[in-house]
Write a structure and sequence with these properties.
The protein is an alpha/beta fold. Helix content is about 45%, strand content about 15%. It has helices at about 15-25, 35-45, 60-70, 100-125, 145-165, 185-190, 195-200, 210-220, and strands spanning about 5, 30-35, 50-55, 80, 130-135, 175. It has a 6-stranded parallel beta sheet with strand order 3-2-1-4-5-6, sandwiched between helices. The protein binds NADPH dihydro-nicotinamide-adenine-dinucleotide phosphate and 2-hydroxyethylsulfonic acid (8X3).
Length: about 220
């Protein structure tokens, strides 16, 4: 039987590219996100080996209910990819928007915790379980205006280490990919749909592609 991967943030960017690559490699996929139209597109494109779940990772009850709703064989999850996340704003702390801070900490940090906790019982039953977190170079460094986003990604890095220590001996492998700049919908979300500002982020750079990160995920899963 093929392995099942549960991936958050599958409706866009790194998550969508990873979903497609792992599907092509034979995995069964549980693809998650809030945008049902994007999830439907994935179902139509990929077919029977995919199951989709629409929920907001900030909503603890919704996370638990979504995981509990999984039908066999999708409920036997072998790989969890904690990818859902975004930056909201790039303001210095003195003019920062508190709603943006809440969004980044609730999604990038608490959402990762909720999803991980909900899936641990299934992962414990897997023969070759793996948790892979999508961190960032922003979880290793800090840049002007990056304050809370960078703090959230530093938290992902710390949680990765802590979770790995705690699960040592259970057989669950735990790791993080820390990408640099990747051209996705990330900057459109960060700048709240300001296309000119979002496009400018990638000028003068050759950013990574979502497919580059998907390849790194594939590499990590196979070590
Ligand atoms: P995108 O904006 O393209 O994708 C973000 C994904 O996260 C979407 O699928 C979105 O789905 C999902 N998501 C966001 N908020 C929620 C929520 N509240 N509940 C459920 N799902 C949510 O960005 P990327 O692909 O670039 O980002 C993916 C990950 O990669 C993030 O963790 C980001 O921090 C990290 N990263 C990105 C880099 C970059 O330069 N782009 C570099 C390093 C790391 P939906 O809106 O449908 O809910
Ligand atoms: C996303 C990369 O540099 O925009 O984590 O923070 S960056």
């Amino acid at each position: 039987m093929s392995k099942t991967v549960f991936i958050t943030g599958a409706t866009s960017g790194i998550g969508r590219a990873t979903t497609k690559l792992l599907f092509d490699q034979g995995y069964q996929i549980v693809a998650c996100g809030r945008r049902e139209d994007r999830l439907r597109e994935l179902r139509e494109e990929l077919g029977e080996r995919i199951h989709t779940l629409e929920f907001d990772v900030r909503n603890r009850e919704a996370v638990i209910a979504a995981v509990a709703s999984l039908p066999a064989p999708f409920n036997q999850v072998d790989v969890l990819i904690n990818n859902a996340g975004n930056a909201h704003g790039l303001d210095p702390i003195q003019s920062g928007n508190v709603d943006d801070w809440d969004a980044m900490l609730d999604i990038n940090v608490k959402g990762l915790l909720y999803v991980t906790k909900a899936l641990l019982p299934a992962l414990m039953k897997s023969e070759n379980p793996h948790i892979l977190n999508i961190g960032s170079t922003a979880g290793k460094e800090v840049y002007p205006g990056g304050n809370v986003y960078c703090a959230s990604k530093h938290a992902v890095d710390a949680l990765n280490t802590g979770i790995r220590m705690d699960l040592n001996g259970t057989g669950i492998r735990v790791g993080t990919i820390h990408p640099g700049l990747v051209e996705t919908e990330f900057s459109m979300v960060r700048f709240k749909g300001d296309t000119a500002r979002a496009t400018k982020v990638y000028q003068g750079y050759t950013p990574l592609t979502p497919e580059d990160v998907a390849e790194s995920v594939w590499f990590a899963l196979n070590q």
